[in-house]
Amino acid sequence: MISINNLSVQFTGTNLFDHVTFNIGDRDRIGLVGMNGAGKSTLLKILCGWQEPESGTIVMASGQAVGYLPQEMVPDSIGTVLEEAMTAFSVIDDLEREQERLTAEIAERTDYESAEYTRLLERHNEVTEHLTLLGGARRQEQAEKVLLGLGFKHSDFGRPVAVFSGGWQMRVELAKLLLRHPDFLLLDEPTNHLDIVSIQWLENYLANYSGAVVLVSHDRTFLDNITKRTIEITAGRIYDYKCPYSEYVVQMQERRASQMAQLTNQQRQVAQIEAFIERFRYKATKAKQVQSRVKMLERMEKITVDEVSTESIHFQFPPAPHSGKIVVEAKGLGKAYGDNQVFDGVDLLLTSGKKVAFVGRNGEGKSTMAKIIVGDINDYTGTFKLGAGVQMGYYAQNQAAMLNLDKTVFETIDDIAQGDIRPKIRNILGSFLFGDDDIDKKVKVLSGGEKARLALAKLLLTPSNLLILDEPTNHLDMNSKDILKNALLQYTGTLIVVSHDRDFLSGLTDELYEFRDGEVHEFKGDIMEFVQNTAETPTQQIIQEAPKTASASKQAYEQSKERERERRKLQNAVKQKEQEIEALEASIAERDAILATGAVQSADFYKEYQSLKDQLEQKMTEWEEAVIAAEQ
């Protein structure tokens, strides 16, 4: 267990945490929620030791390990994918070396009764138990299963990590963390770089994880499928809910409604008391009652309502200009990067007003297809054409990174604003939460979420009838995602969205195109129907197998612990019988010495002497039975 006591942290003069206290149990599944900037990532960094609190303590049992995956990091891997994943087992390598050393030392020792020999045996058992839990004998098998589950192919195992994109390198880091199997797993937005299939695999893996899991995520479905407890961080305090995210939202709203009702009642009561005081303040006959009510007000504990920020982006897309009935048409479309044929023979026909999603594993061609449609890629095979009157708006997956970092927020919008839009720039930026103090900031100092909002604001400046959005929800909080989704539902043009966020896609699109194994398959229906109805693939079989492996390892570990407890119990029983036998033999020896003098003893002496001999015989029988049980 991790115990957090009176934790306090300040940031730019504001209390992120103000004397916060709570515990994390060994098998907890916790979702950390709160507005951007509330302190979720800071709390994870404190829990893993990356950051020190200003006051308070973090206490955990000796020997327990904490693993942390930050939201952003720069991996510096130099080996292949499999080699890098195998570095997670350095702990196992150390344990195996220690096990060999202990085994050799135990074999050489002959001081079987010494405390040092007992400590050697106990440490050997601890190391063996730990190796059983970590699955030391199946290292490469475990590494391959986790890598496959996170979306790598067998052909990727021998490729250098450095040739992969940052998102894929983050998957390697996640794989290493899972393979280390820490007691407490802290994950900050782990789904940002995963596709739907990999997210499903991770959900199953974490649901069966033998340690504790603490998550920060803006993916509702992911949180609901994993967590059993939700900790909300707000205004320096925490509220602990024993339920998943969706239930938390209901309970949180009920709590705040209750606070508002209590506050309203108290304000009404205070007004009545103050009115009484004011009315009878100068009447001597009412002096006692007035004084009583004054004291009542002084003693009254003021009810407060949690501060809830009402700030949120608010916008809607401009009306879509008219276009022809056919918006996008492709026949026999193919694209290859060198020897890598991403897809081939694709037929695609999108009509005006359609809302479709591109889904599938990363690297299967979703973003490539989007780039072909917008004209960023021209070296394809087959035929492709846009319909008459199509005007496109495009949000690229790396849209935030494509912003000019040296320009200000205002300049970024001003550069592309034209005509009647120019006087409305401040209003547009304000609707995306850029106030007067923000518009002169350089883009390079903005957070990931702020850059995402700025990139979305650019989409409003040019009316379009075909919107192509590639992972638009990355770095957006849940409230912002809801508002974007609502705006897209009201959008009158044609929509193509590439996303791995099931909650965001649910109800937004009515048709999907799955990119898989070089082909594109059309699916008529919602994302949730797709997830439920898609036929099993090898990857989905991995999804099912991974938790079983984890459960089997945990079961073997528990069985090992139970055997060890029973062994120690039996050994202790043997020692206890030996001590009792020694005591009886000593008592009998004393009486033998007395009898050797030839002096006549009382009847009670002889009776007690015989009783001791009977007890010794019984204890010898019990000792023999204990030795046999221990040997077995």
The average pLDDT is 84
The unreliable regions are 535-557
Secondary-structure-based class equals: alpha/beta
* Termini gap: 35 Å
Overall 3D form: flat
Radius of gyration in whole Å, from Cα? Answer: 35 Å
Helix content, binned percent: 40-55%
Write structural notes for this entry:
The chain has 632 residues and is α/β, with parallel strands linked by helices. The protein is 47% helix and 19% strand. It has 19 helices and 18 strands. The chain has helices at residues 40-48, 81-86, 90-108, 115-134, 139-149, 166-180, 196-207, 220-226, 245-280, 287-299, 366-374, 409-414, 425-431, 448-459, 478-490, 502-505, 527-533, 538-596, 603-631, and strands at residues 2-11, 14-24, 29-33, 55-60, 66-69, 184-188, 212-216, 229-234, 237-241, 326-337, 340-351, 355-360, 381-386, 392-395, 466-470, 494-498, 511-516, 519-524. The strands form 4 sheets. A 6-stranded mixed sheet has the order 5-6-7-3-8-9, with helices on both faces. A 6-stranded mixed sheet has the order 14-15-16-12-17-18, with helices on both faces. The longest helix has 59 residues, at 538-596. It starts with a strand and ends with a helix. 32% of the residues are buried.
List the helices and strands and how they pair.
Blueprint: E1 2-11, E2 14-24, E3 29-33, H1 40-48, E4 55-60, E5 66-69, H2 81-86, H3 90-108, H4 115-134, H5 139-149, H6 166-180, E6 184-188, H7 196-207, E7 212-216, H8 220-226, E8 229-234, E9 237-241, H9 245-280, H10 287-299, E10 326-337, E11 340-351, E12 355-360, H11 366-374, E13 381-386, E14 392-395, H12 409-414, H13 425-431, H14 448-459, E15 466-470, H15 478-490, E16 494-498, H16 502-505, E17 511-516, E18 519-524, H17 527-533, H18 538-596, H19 603-631
Parallel strand pairs: 3-7, 3-8, 5-6, 6-7, 12-16, 12-17, 14-15, 15-16
Antiparallel strand pairs: 1-2, 1-4, 8-9, 10-11, 10-13, 17-18
Helix pairs in contact: 3-4, 4-18, 5-6, 5-18, 7-18, 9-10, 18-19
